[in-house]
Design goal:
The protein is α/β, with parallel strands linked by helices. The chain has helices at residues 18-26, 54-71, 84-98, 119-133, 152-165, 180-195, 237-245, 248-251, 259-274; strands at residues 7-8, 13-14, 31-32, 34-35, 74-79, 102-107, 137-140, 169-173, 212-216, 229-232, 280-284. The protein folds into two domains: 3-70, no CATH class; 72-290, LmbE-like (Rossmann fold), CATH 3.40.50.10320.
Length: 298
Amino acid sequence: MEVLKKLELTEKGYGLPLQLWIQAYKNNLTVKELPVSMIYKDKDRTFGNYLDDPKKRLDYYQKIIDSEVKKMLNILAVGPHPDDVELGMGGSVLKFTETGHKVTIVDLTDGEPTPHGDPETRKKESVKSSRILGIEERITLDFPNRYLQDEIEARQELAEVIRKIQPDILFAPYWIDVHPDHVAASKICDAARFYGKLSKTEMQGRPFYVKKIYYYIASHLKLNLKPSFIMDISKVMEMKVETIKSYESQFGPSPEGHQLFEWVLNSNRYWGNLIGTEFAEPFISKEEVGIKDIEALL
């Protein structure tokens, strides 16, 4: 099994904290168990139970890691342009990746032309932001900025990405917006989610239906919304700001004075205030949001 390749045990090894094994798996690293002699003066120190047997110890680690891996989510966030995901849910993406979830971002266009940008610059900016976000993959599709349309080709191309990635959750732009690209992107996500499950089609990949879709707010309208849930991002707000600063061609070298930048700060502060935190991001669901236990309400 893949996990086993990441766990190298020594005959007289002593277990590292289990969380290190788990993080090794999540980050595709190999960790070697330290020999007892490197940790304790007592070279004969052992676990003192059945875990002294390396095979049993490995089986034990395997069971725990398998349990942790099942908790890892595969998340897909879609934006009409580079920077939309950052503006609308950059803080949430940071929280997802910090806790070991896999996040992929799809930009439906390269965001160009814009007054001060070009495709090469926007690409460099999105790469810089992606590194801060900690995401493993960012895909840019070849649809036209300013003229994005909810058409069959766009639906199918995004559906093929969905069939390949097979995410547990899909995040899409909110469907009400003055920017036509944002409206189209939301519709494309809805349709691609449905197209993803289709059989007897020329689309690549096996049929797959995303169980949950939620909508983030990166709207040009000043809306009075009632979110389905609000994510506390107070601890990662500074990093979210850094991801936005990555897009210098859009916000300038000092984005603090940019109108949209100020809107993001004020908006995130407003949503945070509603749930008793400093900063937060709102999300909307067309379906009811359920919880599995009471702790989710804290």
